[in-house]
Specification:
252 residues; alpha/beta; Rossmann fold; six-stranded mixed beta sheet
């Protein structure tokens, strides 16, 4: 589904250049749940921004289902984001002036979908995520956990190819975090959602099927969960983070 090949990203001017990504390559198969970890400054958020088309690469290639994202024009890029990418952010990014139902269906409406079809799709995903009872409420009227469920519903309502999550549990307490991670696991296992999640939290990463570790803009290590249970995988993640060194308070 996703092929990242030798991507590089530079910031700054001629006199002061920072290399945020250094020839990063990996592939993502349909239905995978991958976590990306690393200390502050490792390049994990830059990597997600490049894949999500929020930022552009300085060199290399990013192919999503055969489409080279760097070659898309502005109008095609906007449609590409709406139709192929789903986003879940730490601060939810829900619009306060719209109801939860309207927030979830916004991308569909922007694509000029039939209103009845939009309502049906919103109801279907809301039922799967257990939020039908809050569809008529506004974001300020619901809890943080409910907001994140709504954000997940918005990200998946149109059957997007790839779900991108940037620190999705960062603003949640431990109970809400666990609930959200279980929802993401459900999306992955039951709806075959392909998920790429940036996280500093080993507990969150232990829900993934594979973890990529970045250090100084390069892939430092990779862990596959396989048939191991989550608690064993969690301890293995902590062991790799210990090897990474640096500012471990940012990653553990």
């Amino acid at each position: 589904m996703l092929q990242v090949t030798n991507i590089e990203k530079y910031y700054g001017s001629k006199n002061h250049v920072t290399k945020a990504l250094d020839r990063v390559s990996f592939t993502v198969e349909k239905g995978e749940f991958i976590a990306i970890m690393g200390a502050s400054g490792s390049g994990k958020t830059t990597l997600l921004n490049c894949i999500s088309t929020i930022d552009t690469v300085s060199a290399g290639s990013i192919l999503l289902e055969g489409t080279e994202v760097s070659e898309l024009g502005e109008s095609d890029l906007a449609r590409f984001r709406r139709e192929r990418l789903g986003f879940v952010f730490q601060d939810f990014n829900l619009l306060d002036t719209l109801t939860i139902e309207e927030n979830i269906g916004l991308a569909l409406m922007l694509n000029h979908s039939n209103p009845q079809a939009v309502q049906n799709q919103v109801m279907e995903i809301a039922e799967k995520l257990g939020i039908t009872d809050i569809l008529g409420k506004f974001p300020y009227q619901v809890s943080g956990g409910q907001k994140q469920r709504a954000a997940c519903a918005r990200a998946m309502v149109a059957g997007q190819s790839l779900l991108l999550a940037d620190e999705p549990t960062g603003a949640l307490d431990s109970t809400a975090s666990k609930n959200l991670l279980e929802i993401m696991t459900k999306l992955n296992q039951e709806m075959e959602a392909t998920i790429l999640m940036v996280t500093h939290d080993a507990y969150s990463a232990s829900y993934a099927s594979r973890v990529l570790f970045l250090k100084d803009g390069k892939i430092f290590n990779e862990l596959l969960r396989g048939e191991r249970n989550r608690s064993v995988f969690y301890r293995e993640i902590l062991n790799v983070l210990a090897m990474l060194g640096g500012d471990l308070c940012d990653v553990i």
